[in-house]
Write a structure and sequence with these properties.
It contains 4 helices and 10 strands. It is an alpha/beta fold.
Length: 179
């Protein structure tokens, strides 16, 4: 079965976006240097929260052309790029839809609430965190507000010359997932 993955950059002080929702602080760091292209080749579908979708969709060209994207939202999305669908019944609905169309990995793109829900629901298999040597000061935290301790299994580290560090963790399964 496809793995469900986090692949996310976070500032050293734990933010995935600044207080305005922007990730402009990532601009000096070229994702190609960290294996983003290879990662994206392994992904068959994406799941993201509505706010993340709206932020990404509002700026420039849609970056996930050719990849099915399931946006978690109980409301209509308005104008959507080709390949974007709404998962109206939440995370499990999105996962079920994604698993029906791909046997490749599924990327939980975000935001913090979506990532927290996926982790708490026990659907995440692998976390790849890129610590970027920037302190944002305030903004959107990596995970919204976890309700329980999550123990992860260390699976590797990679340091890059520009100071970015990739941490990789396997998320152990404790219960049988619902989906």
């Amino acid at each position: 079965m496809a793995r469900v993955r986090f692949y996310v950059a976070t500032s050293l002080d734990g933010f995935i976006a600044d207080s305005g929702g922007s990730v402009d602080w990532l601009a000096p760091y070229d994702a190609r240097l960290y294996g983003y292209g290879s990662f994206l080749d392994e992904v068959g579908a994406l799941i993201m929260g509505r706010r993340t979708f709206e932020l990404i969709n509002a700026v420039g060209e849609w970056p996930y052309r050719g990849k099915p994207v399931f946006v978690l939202s109980s409301h209509a999305l308005g104008r959507t790029p080709v390949g974007v669908s709404t998962a109206t019944r939440g995370l499990w609905d999105g996962l079920q839809q994604a698993r029906q169309i791909t046997h490749r990995d599924i990327w939980i793109v975000g935001g913090a609430v979506t990532m927290q829900s996926a982790l708490e629901e026990g659907v995440v298999d692998l976390m790849e965190l890129f610590l970027v040597p920037v302190c944002v000061g305030a903004g959107v935290g990596l995970l919204n507000d976890l309700r329980a301790c999550q123990t992860l299994v260390f699976d590797g580290v990679e340091a890059f010359p520009d100071g970015v560090v990739k941490l990789r963790y396997v998320v152990p399964k404790h219960d049988t997932p619902r989906a």
